[in-house]
C-alpha cells in the first residue's frame, strides 16, 4: 500500500500542475512490475488545444517504446490516476495491455467510464486481466475532490467558456 500511495501522490502532483495550467485536474503515472517509474502524464487539453490530451493517454504516449515492449512481452504495468479514467482513456488502457489500474476518485457523475464500460460486458477478456483498485486513500481522494471543485470555477471550464460567449 505504501508503494501505491507514493505513486498516487505523484499522480496527484500532476493533477495539481494541470489545474495550474488551467485545464481539467487529472494526473497519471505508469510503473513497471518492479515499481520503476516509466512515464508521467497530466491533462493538457487546454494548453495543447488537443481534446485527446488526457492524463492517462499522455502517460501511455510518454511511455513510448517501454509500453510497446511491455505489450509484446506481456509485462505487468500499473497505471495510477487521480481520477477514474474516461471511456477514451479506458480504451487506451485496454489496448496498451496495462494489467493494473489504481485511481483516487470515482467519477460517477462526470466522464468516468472505466466501470461503465466494464459493466457493459464488452471486451470482457481484456477487462478480466486487469486488477483494479478504486479510492484506496481517503485523504488523497479528498485532495482530488478539492481540485475538482476548484475546476468548477476555472476560466477554462466549459460552463465558464460558454458564459463568456453570451
Topology:
Blueprint: H1 2-20, E1 27-31, E2 37-42, H2 45-48, H3 55-73, E3 78-81, H4 87-96, E4 100-103, H5 114-119, H6 124-128, E5 131-134, H7 138-151, H8 158-165
Helix pairs in contact: 1-7, 3-4
Q: How many E strands?
A: 5
Summarize the main sheet: 5 strands, mixed
Secondary-structure element series: HEEHHEHEHHEHH
Strand content: 5-15%
Mean pLDDT: 92
Q: What form results from the Cα inertia axes? A: globular
- pLDDT below 50 for ≥5 consecutive residues: which ranges? none
Q: Residue share in helices?
A: 40-55%
Rounded to an integer in angstroms, the radius of gyration calculated over CA atoms is 15 Å
Strand order of the largest sheet: 2-1-3-4-5
| Helix/strand/pairing category | alpha/beta
C-alpha end-to-end distance? 49 Å
Q: Helical segment tally? A: 8
Question: Could you explain how this protein is built, in words?
Answer:
The chain contains eight helices and five strands. The relative contact order is 0.16. The protein has a five-stranded mixed β-sheet with strand order 2-1-3-4-5. Helix 1 (2-20) packs parallel to helix 7 (138-151) and helix 3 (55-73) packs parallel to helix 4. A hairpin with a 5-residue loop joins strand 1 and strand 2. The mean pLDDT is 92. It is globular and about 55 Å long. With 166 residues, the chain is of the alpha/beta class.
Amino acid at each position: 500500500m505504501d508503494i501505491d500511495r507514493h505513486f498516487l501522490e505523484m499522480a496527484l502532483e500532476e493533477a495539481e500542475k494541470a489545474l495550474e495550467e488551467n485545464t481539467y485536474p487529472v494526473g497519471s503515472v505508469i510503473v513497471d512490475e518492479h515499481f520503476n517509474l516509466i512515464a508521467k502524464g497530466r491533462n493538457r487539453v487546454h494548453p495543447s488545444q488537443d481534446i485527446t490530451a488526457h492524463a492517462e493517454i499522455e502517460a501511455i504516449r510518454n511511455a513510448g517504446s517501454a509500453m510497446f515492449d511491455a505489450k509484446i512481452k506481456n509485462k505487468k504495468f500499473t497505471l495510477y490516476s487521480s481520477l477514474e479514467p474516461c471511456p477514451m482513456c479506458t480504451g487506451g488502457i485496454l489496448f496498451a495491455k496495462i494489467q493494473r489500474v489504481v485511481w483516487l476518485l470515482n467519477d460517477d457523475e462526470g466522464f468516468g467510464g472505466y466501470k461503465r464500460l466494464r459493466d457493459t460486458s464488452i471486451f470482457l477478456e481484456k477487462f478480466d486481466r486487469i486488477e483494479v483498485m478504486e479510492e484506496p486513500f481517503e485523504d488523497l481522494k479528498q485532495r482530488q475532490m478539492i481540485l475538482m471543485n476548484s475546476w468548477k470555477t476555472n476560466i477554462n471550464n466549459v460552463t465558464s467558456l460558454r458564459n463568456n460567449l453570451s
